[in-house]
Amino acid sequence: MESWGNLLSNLEGDEIEGIFQSVSDHRLDNSADTTRPSLDGVRHDSGVSVISAKEEGTKTAPSPQNTTPSHETSGSVVAKASPTREDFDNALWVTTKVNGITQYRAPRYTTSPTTNPPHITILNPSIAKESTAIDLSTSPSSFALQCASVGFFKTLCWDTNPWNIEGLKRSCVKNEWNLQIHHGDDRQSKRLRSSLRSKIVAFVEGQDSASSRVEKMRDQLPPIRCVRCEDSSTSQATAAAALDPALGGWIYVQAAFGTEFVISSANQIRGEFEEMINILDNKRGFWEAVRRPRIEYIQRGGSYAAGVVSCVIVIYIPPLRI
Known about the structure:
This is S-adenosyl-L-methionine-dependent methyltransferase. Helices cover 34% and strands 21% of the residues. The chain is built from 11 helices and 11 strands. The strands form 2 sheets. A 9-stranded mixed sheet has the order 1-10-11-9-8-4-5-7-6, with helices on both faces. Strands 2-3 form a two-stranded antiparallel ribbon.
């Protein structure tokens, strides 16, 4: 008991609440047998480990401190298409605090994260405050909040899960950041122009709408220098096209690989981005321009299953030499 007392005495109230809520949710999900892990959706979460520079031959980033992944089972996520305000108010919300940022999540209605939020330490603060970040991946809250924390002038994110959007809303209130939620109706264009004054703008629509949306807003935004995407050709193509070609930037790819194939798979993704970027440059009229993206670092997270690890691959896209 003394060790628990020492731990709790060094935590803030919302962090203590988050611990007890996580423990309660875990016990509820495993009430039939708390001595064995559930066979439904087994996962082995652990702290973040970063591939060594010797192994990867690239720059590494420090692991997040004071970060504890959620350990509730993730085999079943209850979906409800149109939750009411009463549903939101009556739901169990878990709070976590990472890098000084408080985040809210409803574990019953959202998937559990398999990596801690990536460190966005590559950018100079002076670059971030004059730039826009984009999150194309699902469950945008962690990355969007990280971008707001490091000082990005604007962060845009896409998600169709209303529980993710509500979690982002509660997180922004707690962290005192302005958020505007846009429901994808083009008739709301006037409201959208107004929302661009907010620090974070969330679009409740699929990321397949992001490319055209970004192009319509590009002239109203600072240069896009940072994008997070999924490991899919559509998401990666949107990310490559969104980055400002004259300045370049960073792409964070959320992916899952076999533990033995992390390096080779990451290099394959890097090569795919090189091909996409140079095709885009050719379409822009720069036939002789050749840009070679490079891997900045690879962050490993928890496992979906034995032998499969969740990763964030950070790829730097150099500027187009005009």
